[in-house]
Write a structure and sequence with these properties.
Helix content: under 10%
Low-confidence stretches: 1-7, 525-529, 531-535
Structural class: mainly beta
Number of helices: 6
Number of strands: 35
Mean pLDDT: 86
Distance between the termini: 33 Å
Shape: globular
Length: 675
């Protein structure tokens, strides 16, 4: 996933588990990109005594000036004053200790369910262990109740068919990694990224530095319809019933990766990284093109039938294991200091569709380019002196799309950092022909033919200012234009703007007010050309079509009151004017209470109201969500986290275009143990 709003994050979260981070994303405090980065950072862990400059800067709330001061103190043997007591407590979930030379690890058991579920809940188990002779292993096991089979071609009907969805125990991720003094090797599933994330990055981290083991899993999202077939194939109860979806995960690279580094002279170090991968990948049904039944690129996606007494159409959007991808590449980085380096990255991939008897390819709007192999090569550099750091990456993508062949992209960042303050200015250009499904570079939220990092010329300014125990300010302005036509002819020059600012007053524990302003303008200058472009129903929540218009301007006021070490109260209200096909006013409010009755117990309660059109109650999202969170340290090293949510749909049943949902009772459970 591309990152539209990279670190520093929207807030500096004071939470200790992934379930709490997920709650911040649900309520809109964190974006999906920030949530992914923070979860990845927590799973990887930061070891302060050995972490690099860029890794330390990835921690929420730290500037390069703070990190440089810490590195100087660490090199001199006195790093005791790196973090204040409050910072150490806030960052504790992301920090890990030094390898003690004994076996250590952790295990997490996750589940989620709703009272409306007609079958058992989904379950996920993450386990990691290691510490002896530099070896660490990890695994992700999942019990899925609605797994769709791999598609195959039916010789008689020549249609794509799958087995009926059913239950299965899956082992989607595993890894074993050996780390030595100057080298490391990983076998299994992994993520990797380099430079400014332009040529290659799948880590979700703001500053990736090579290969990371991957055992990540995403919690189930909103309830979905129980029946995965067309409505006519389901009985009436299943047709209207909702169910908790299964756990989901990103399909990482799978194979082998390794790195080696060595000194070339005084202060000069060369790091070489290589990887090879063979992974089965899923795609949305709408992204598949059946060339056996159609010779044009404008053909509709093939229908998929479910094997049974009656062959019915599959309604699920994602098809697992449709193609197998061979991928490989590497990176070479020459570092002359912690702030100066030069790197080269290159990789290539070739998909092979796994459906025998079918001639399949990707639709023009798919995430992956059609026609065969694809890849990218790039050069990145970094240099810093005093308060200034400059970063640059140039990249060229390659693909087999007839009449295309790839394109150019460039990303440049300048960061000026001081104690408690940091300013960043970044410039970016992504050509229309730049098609790179494994780029994680900063981009706008618009999508062109499945790609966010494409057809964009933009600038972003970001500023962070903190006066310890007094106030904190963070602001960002991001503007971009389309250098070439998008999905609609004549849209070159269409401009978008996103801006946000937040100020928090921290002087008094019992009264900490904050104010957030945000604005989004889409389609400025050429908005009438985009009037008929529809949004992709399968797109991510923050993604928009590459040709769309409208805007949003909003303000949110928040008050936090820490009454004692054991009691905290939060109240928030937000109001926004939204322009899409027509203008409307949205509202949201939140009241939250956090209690800590004992050292081993934390209890939180929240009531949140959202209304996406204050003038009527017939079509958009209008609900009240009441949430109770529980954290209990059962034993030393073992923590139980639970969440209950009661969601009430406020739409008027007499006039709503679709009947309002029945009240929903949702549960999530996370048991984590460390040893």
């Amino acid at each position: 996933m591309s990152s539209a709003w990279a670190a520093p994050y929207e807030v500096e979260p004071d939470v200790d588990g992934e379930l709490e981070l997920f709650g911040l994303m649900e309520e809109g405090t964190l974006s999906a990109e920030s949530w992914a980065a923070l979860v990845a950072l927590r799973r990887v862990g930061v070891e302060p005594e050995r972490a690099t400059r860029d890794t330390l800067h990835s921690l929420p709330g730290l500037t390069y000036a703070q990190v440089d001061a810490w590195l100087r103190a660490r090199d001199s043997g006195d790093a005791s004053a790196f973090l204040t007591e409050a910072e150490a407590r806030r960052l504790a979930p992301f920090l890990v200790g030094e390898d003690a030379g004994r076996v250590t690890g952790d295990a997490r058991l996750l589940t989620a369910f709703a009272l409306s579920d007609s079958r058992g809940p989904p379950v996920a188990l993450q386990m990691r262990a290691g510490g002896l002779r530099g070896l660490r292993v990890g695994v992700l096991a999942v019990w899925a109740r609605r797994k769709v089979g791999t598609p195959r071609r039916d010789a008689r009907s020549r249609a794509l068919v799958v087995e009926a969805p059913g239950s299965a125990v899956l082992l989607p991720k595993f890894h074993a990694r050996w780390t030595g003094t100057r080298a490391s090797v990983l076998v299994g599933t992994y993520r990797l990224g380099f430079g400014q994330r332009l040529t290659l990055d799948t880590t979700a981290l703001p500053s990736p530095e090579g290969v990371l083991p991957d055992d990540g899993v995403r919690p189930p999202g909103a309830l979905e319809r129980e029946c995965l077939l067309t409505s006519s194939a389901c009985d009436e109860d299943a047709r209207d019933a909702d169910i908790t979806p299964d756990f989901r995960w990103d399909e990482a690279f799978r194979g082998i990766a390794g790195s080696v580094r060595g000194a070339l002279g005084s202060g000069v170090e060369l790091t070489l990284t290589g990887f090879g991968s063979y992974q089965g990948r899923s795609v949305r049904r709408s992204e598949v093109l059946d060339r056996g039944g159609c010779s044009s690129d404008a053909c509709a996606a093939p229908e998929v039938l479910v094997v049974g007494a009656r062959r019915e159409k599959l309604r699920a959007s994602s098809l697992p294991g449709v193609f197998r991808e061979w991928a490989g590449g590497g990176n070479a980085t020459l570092a002359v200091s912690p702030r100066a380096r030069l790197g080269v990255t290159g990789w290539g991939a070739r998909p092979g569709f796994a459906v025998e008897g079918a001639v399949l390819d990707f639709q023009p709007g798919a995430r992956y380019p059609a026609g065969g192999g694809f890849g990218a090569v790039g050069v990145d550099a970094a240099w810093g002196a005093g308060p200034v750091d400059v970063f640059l990456e140039l990249s060229r993508s390659f693909d087999s799309v007839p009449g295309a062949g790839g394109g150019w992209a460039a990303l440049q960042r300048t960061v000026v950092s001081g104690v408690g303050r940091e300013l960043e200015v970044s410039l970016r250009y992504y050509g229309r022909g730049f098609v790179n499904p494994y780029s994680g570079a900063t981009s706008g939220a618009d999508v062109l033919e499945g790609q966010r990092v494409r057809n964009e010329l933009g600038v972003r300014l970001r500023y962070l200012h903190r006066d310890v125990d007094a106030w904190r300010f963070r602001g960002q302005v991001d503007g971009w234009t389309l250098p070439s036509d998008g999905v609609v002819e004549g849209t070159a020059g269409l401009t978008r703007l996103r801006a946000s600012a937040r100020v928090d007053v921290l002087a008094w524990a019992w009264l900490q007010p904050s104010l957030r302003l945000d604005a989004r303008v889409s389609g400025a200058g050429l908005s009438t050309l985009c009037a008929g472009v529809e949004r992709d129903e399968d797109a991510e929540p923050e993604e928009v079509a590459a040709c769309s218009n409208g805007g949003r301007q909003g303000a949110t006021a928040r008050v936090r009151s820490v009454l004692s070490e054991r009691v905290e109260v939060v109240a928030e209200y937000g109001h926004a004017r939204v322009v899409e096909t027509q203008a409307r006013w949205d509202g949201r409010a939140l009241v939250e209470l956090k209690l800590r009755p004992a050292e081993s117990w934390r209890v939180g309660g929240r009531v949140q109201w959202k209304d996406e059109d204050l003038a009527e109650r017939t079509r958009l999202r209008q609900e009240v969500r009441t949430t109770v969170d529980l954290r209990w340290s059962v034993l030393e090293g073992t923590t139980l986290r639970g969440r209950y949510a009661w969601v009430v749909d406020l739409k008027d049943a007499r006039t709503a275009r679709t009947p309002p949902d029945a009240p929903r009772h949702l549960f999530q459970l996370d048991v984590e143990t460390r040893f």
